[in-house]
Amino acid sequence: MSKFWSPKVNDLVPYVPGEQPKMANLVKLNTNENPFGPSPRVIEAIQAELNDNLRLYPDPEGDSLRQTIAGYHKVKPEQVFLGNGSDEVLAHIFYGLFQHGEPVLFPDVTYSFYPVYCGLYNIEGKKIPLTDTFEINPDDFRQPNGGVIFPNPNAPTGRYLELAKVEEILKANPDRVVVVDEAYIDFGGESAITLVDAYPNLLVSQTLSKARSLAGLRVGFAVGHPDLIEALNRVKNSFNSYPLDRLALAGAKAAYEDEAWFRKCCDGVIAERERLSAALEKLDFEVLPSRANFVFARHKSQAGELLAQGLREQGIIVRHFSKPRISDFLRITIGTPEQNDALIKGLQSL
Ligand code: PMP
């Protein structure tokens, strides 16, 4: 703190991202990255852009990528908004599409960036407890609010909400924007993008960081009614007109053009998730049913924090949250078969 700081900065409680350790050779299962890496076509597209075009500003609207994403999801380009990772898309949503002065509803537990954006924009956040089985109950989202946001599948639980239940939340809030954060949708869930034409209050956000293995490139997007997208564009153009650089635009487009690679990565993660869940159950863990690229699991007798520490001493990093209700759990990203074997072996030795 210093006398030069705005008082607003004094009050900020920033998001703390998962650790990105500098050491090599770690089994890194802590930030839900994709173990299989991006399509080779992404690397080629970025290389071509690097060779030819860095001198030039990127397209501020990212038209070519928006067309590709729109075509893929069978919507119109004016229904797609691009951002520098879905975190940035979410920031603009909190600013531009929630009614400030009324509480924004999100589950407890959920992605911990939501309360951070509430703090940044001085919005009240109201946490809606999950059920005993760590599920979202649509009935709890029938109350006055300035907007609703939840991940589907939820993070860090991995639990999936069926689309019929998503629709219940949409129908209960016809005058408020309901945001479905689908960062993990490609690992076995059904996207709510198919509902955007039926619900003008629905906005779906997705990322290329997970299923498309591009966490380092920073590309996310939202799909919804053109009126919602127009608001997001106004916010974007009041903040940074070029959120996606040329490499990101080119690489992201190429990722969408390699469906076979995408499917192979998703199928690989799903198969490993099922294998790892069964192995953890054999080791006396309770494993929540996951549709994400991670599992959320607690041991029946050993403390989560100690297990995370014990794994770390063996060079295996998983995520442990010291929040109430979930402090017994470990969130374990699905790795390669070899990494998952190392994790199982590591746990067996504790
Ligand atoms: N939403 C959820 C639920 C997440 O877990 C993450 C990843 N931490 C994001 C959004 C942000 O992803 P990105 O900014 O990499 O697109």
TrEMBL record:
Known catalytic reactions: L-histidinol phosphate + 2-oxoglutarate = 3-(imidazol-4-yl)-2-oxopropyl phosphate + L-glutamate
Obligatory cofactor(s): pyridoxal 5'-phosphate
Domain of life: Bacteria
Signal sequence interval, chain numbering: none
Cross-referenced InterPro entries: Aminotrans_II_pyridoxalP_BS, Aminotransferase_I/II_large, HisP_aminotrans, PyrdxlP-dep_Trfase, PyrdxlP-dep_Trfase_major, PyrdxlP-dep_Trfase_small
Keyword terms of this UniProt record: Amino-acid biosynthesis, Aminotransferase, Histidine biosynthesis, Pyridoxal phosphate, Transferase
Protein's pathway: Amino-acid biosynthesis; L-histidine biosynthesis; L-histidine from 5-phospho-alpha-D-ribose 1-diphosphate: step 7/9
One GO MF term: histidinol-phosphate transaminase activity
Annotated CDD domains: AAT_like
Its EC number(s): 2.6.1.9
Key word Amino-acid biosynthesis present: yes
Positions bearing N6-(pyridoxal phosphate)lysine: 210
Ranges of residues in domain Aminotransferase class I/classII large: 25-345
Database matches in Pfam families: Aminotran_1_2 (PF00155)
Matches recorded under NCBIfam families: hisC
Subunit structure: Homodimer.
Name the record gives this protein: Histidinol-phosphate aminotransferase
